[in-house]
Structure formats: structure tokens, C-alpha cells
Amino acid sequence: MAVDFTEKAKRFQAIDEIIASGRKLKWNQIISEMNDKYGLQTSKSAFYRDIEELQEKYGAPIDTDFESSGYFYTDPKYRLPRFYTDENAAKAAKLIKTLMDMVKGNPLYKEAQEVFESLAIENHDLTLENIKINKKPDNDRIIFVGAPNTKVPAETWRIIDKALQENRVITFDYISNADKESKFRQVQPWQLIFDDGNWNLHGLDVVKNARRRYSLEKIKNLKITNDVFTLPKDYDFRNMTRGSFGCMCDDAYLDYKIHLHGYAARYAQTKLWGDNQTITPDKKNPGPDGDGIILSFRTNQLMCVQRWVWKWADEAFPLAPKELVDDWKEKLERVNAIEL
Fold it and tell me: Which range marks the domain in which residue 73 is found?
């Protein structure tokens, strides 16, 4: 049975709240209160059908008082589960399902599905696959978009999941952005990172004894070994950097100063980019509209910052450190040398 938040569900919620109040109201009194308090109109026959369905499908312990003929719960603690009654919970469930669709096919999805199923009462099918909500415009007001991802093979997920759980070393072939040919890797898998629509494996390159990140879609010939490692206490990627620019980082922290104006300046002021961040007006270079700023912060994500500054084109240029300024100037020279 799919979870369905319709007018019937609203009636179920109202009936549940009225009966749980312990006032032992008769059927006609309940119908009247449903109309007056909840704005729900129903008939005597529809009310009886709802009571029957609540008893049979949801296990509601509903009975009638012998003397007053009023309805009550034989178990005063019983309440209809929120997943079956609350429209806001329905929207939250739809949002969670949309988020989980981003990791469908990997072990995280399976674990999330098990959590949803554990929330269901006996004999009720509450799963991520079966969450359905009435098709209304407001149900599509929160969506997630991004560049299409390369599909990660199920076998890759299976091996990495097993290696993470058992702390087993894995081997695979991998071609990094800096290499032209694929190279053999021997890695301790520490952590999976979801960054900008892509899954990355954070771990230790055993041969180089260095921490590295690997894009899952680029991993080939993946194998799990019998070598077991001890997970270090500081394995978490977030211990290496704030991660404001993604999952790439260096060992060295640098102090950055970047001029921005226009849309780039407005956008930058809404985020936290690194430690010791400050934003001040750029009086020397105010920009075309006088809204120029100098964004200052400290981070160890040089490569990411280089790409970030360059993408703003004429709305940004670096002031410090030297590594960032030199890279920007080199890119500018190469672009200017292009003949169109």
C-alpha cells in the first residue's frame, strides 16, 4: 500500500484527534466537529467506512462505549502514525525521497530505505519507493538540479561498501586530471564524499603514504584485498579543510585577497569561504558600478580557488597570494594568445 496523503488522510487525522481526546463523542458529533473545526465534510456512511479502514488497515483500537455509544480508543496511548496523517510530513518525505534519489544504487540508499521501513507499523509498506503524494504544484516547488553524473557501476559500490565496513585495502586503475595515462593505485578507503553532484573516495595512497581523493566514475578494475588497516582518528576529510570549495585541498594554508564586483561580489558576500574571512570595500578598484569589494580568507584549497576566481571572468581578479596571482596572469596570457 502506497502512502497517500489525500482528503481521506485528512479525515483520518481529524477522526484520530477527536477520538484521542477521550470525550467519547457519537458519530454525528464527530462528523459535526470535523466540519466545524477541520473544514471536512463527510456523510454517515463515509464515516463508518473510515472507521472500518482505520481499524483494519491501521490497527486503530477503536470501540464504542456501551452506555453513550461514543467512540474511544481501547489503548489510550494509540495515535495514528504521522506518516499517514500529516501533509507537512508528506512534503518532508517527498523532499527526503528526492534527496535519496541522488544516491540511488549505492549502499546509502539501501540504508535509508531500511530506516523508512523501520518507521512503518506492521504490515504497512512505507518505503522510499512507495512514497506518493497528490500531484499538486506546491509538491514540485523544491527540486535538485545539476550536471548529469556518470553512472557508477553497482559492483564498484558493492566493493567500496565492503571495504569501508571491513577496513580493507583496495586496488584499482585510475587516471587523474594531471596524468595522461592510467596508473595502478593501492588505497585505504576512509570516506565517501558527495561533492557538486559527484561521488569521491577519500583515503590514503599506500604507496605514496599521502591522502588523496578519487572520483568514483573514474575508478577501473577495482579489487578488494585481504589487507586490513586501522582507521586513523583524523581520517575525516573535514579535519583537513573547511571544504568551502569542494573536496580538493593541499597541505599548505595560504591567505587570500580577491577583488570582486558586480554579481560576483553580491554572490561572494552570501557565503563563508574560509577561516578569518573579511569583506571590505575596494576603494582603489571600486568597479564599474562602485560595488567592488576585497574578499579575504585563509584556506588550503589553492587549486579550487584558482578555478573559482577564473570563472568570474572580468568580475574578479586576485590580489594575493603570489601563487594565485601568477596562475591568473598565466591563464590570461594564454587566453589573449588565442586567435578567433
Answer: 1-145
